[in-house]
Every structure is written in C-alpha cells, then in structure tokens.
C-alpha cells in the first residue's frame, strides 16, 4: 500500500458525470494520444542513434506515462461504484449533493460532494473523503457544521441542499 502523504484508500463512489469523464479520458488516451506518440517515437527512431535522440527518449517516456495512466484508470473504473441518484430526497446531505454554505463572515460557497477521482476544489467539487464533506454528510438546511482546518476551526451554516 502506498503510504505517501495524501494517498491511501479512496472511496469507490463516483457520480455518473465523473465516471463518463474518466471513460472519455481512457478513450482519448487510446484513440488519440497513444497513437500520436507512437508515430512520433517511430519517426524519431528512424533518424538514427536512439541513445542521443531527445525526441525518441521523450516519446518513450511519454508512452510509459500514458500506459501507467491507462492501467490506473482501468483498475479504478473496475473498482468504482456509480451513484446516479441520492439515497433519499428528504433534504439530507448525501453523496452527489450540491450544498450552499455560509461561513461566519457571511460569505457563501457552493460545493458538490463527489468521489475522490473527480474532486476539483477550484470547480467546487469536494471529495467525500475530505473533512468538509465528512462533516456535512447527514446534515440538512439550517444545520451548523464545524470543520477542523490547519488554520483553525470554522463553522458553516447549511443554506441549501439540492440534487441535480
């Protein structure tokens, strides 16, 4: 098991959109990137001495990166469990929910709870494994939630919960 910081067991949940995005990445790598890089490596190899051929060396390295990514994606796609609909529509925060939060200063932020393979904080997509998502799960509108952060605890009020 990989013990580097930030790695470790991940939840195997993913939204349907996230699953489709990973499938599109696999398709792009197989149909576009890998054939393109393979052609570039073959062209570079045709130019002679491979040991001093930067294009050849870089191309081979890029092929290894693509193959590693394809292997990783194949394993993850097999392990993932697509969650298409929330478990209930009772206003409780669950996987896949869009949650509008207000902090102590009155600032509003909107997050969606997604799987770790699709999280992207810059787009408001937070991993179900994150401290914020863990604190939000099971809460409802008007509930307060306290989240521990390295720079200090913060309290949020749940303003809205929706599922799209």
Describe the structure.
The protein folds into 2 domains: 13-82, Helix Hairpins; 86-162, Transcription elongation factor, GreA/GreB, C-terminal domain (Chitinase A, domain 3). The chain contains 3 helices and 7 strands. It has helices spanning 16-45, 54-79, 131-136, and strands spanning 13-15, 81-83, 98-102, 108-114, 125-127, 144-147, 154-162. A hairpin with a 5-residue loop joins strand 3 and strand 4. Helix 1 runs antiparallel to helix 2. The protein is elongated, with a radius of gyration of 21 Å. The two termini are 36 Å apart.
**Using only CA atoms, what is the Rg?**
21 Å
CATH fold name of the largest domain, please?
Chitinase A, domain 3
Derived structural class: alpha/beta
Integer count of domains: 2
Q: Would you report the number of β strands?
A: 7
Taken from the alpha-carbon principal axes, the silhouette is elongated
Looking across the biggest beta sheet, what order are the strands in?
Answer: 5-4-3-7-6
> For the record, what CATH class of the largest domain applies?
Alpha Beta
The largest sheet is: 5 strands, mixed
Oligomeric grouping of the chains: single chain
The CATH homologous superfamily name of the largest domain equals Transcription elongation factor, GreA/GreB, C-terminal domain
User: How are helices and strands ordered from N to C?
Assistant: EHHEEEEHEE
What helical percentage do the residues reach? 25-40%
User: Which segments are poorly predicted (pLDDT under 50) over 5 or more consecutive residues?
Assistant: 1-6
The average pLDDT score comes to 90
* Through-space gap between termini: 36 Å
């Amino acid at each position: 098991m990989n013990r580097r910081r930030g790695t470790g067991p991940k939840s195997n949940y993913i939204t349907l959109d996230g699953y489709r995005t990973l499938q599109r990445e696999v398709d792009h790598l197989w149909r576009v990137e890998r054939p393109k890089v393979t052609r570039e490596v073959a062209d570079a190899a045709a130019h002679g001495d491979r040991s001093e051929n930067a294009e050849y060396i870089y191309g081979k390295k890029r092929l290894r990166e693509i193959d590693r990514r394809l292997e990783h994606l194949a394993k993850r796609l097999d392990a993932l469990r697509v969650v298409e609909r929330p478990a209930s529509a009772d206003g409780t925060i669950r996987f896949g929910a869009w949650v509008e939060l207000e902090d102590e200063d009155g600032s509003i932020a909107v997050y969606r709870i997604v799987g770790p393979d699709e999280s992207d904080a810059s787009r408001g997509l937070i991993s179900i494994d994150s401290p914020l998502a863990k604190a939000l799960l099971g809460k409802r509108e008007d509930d307060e939630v306290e989240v521990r952060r390295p720079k200090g605890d913060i309290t949020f009020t749940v303003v809205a919960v929706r599922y799209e």
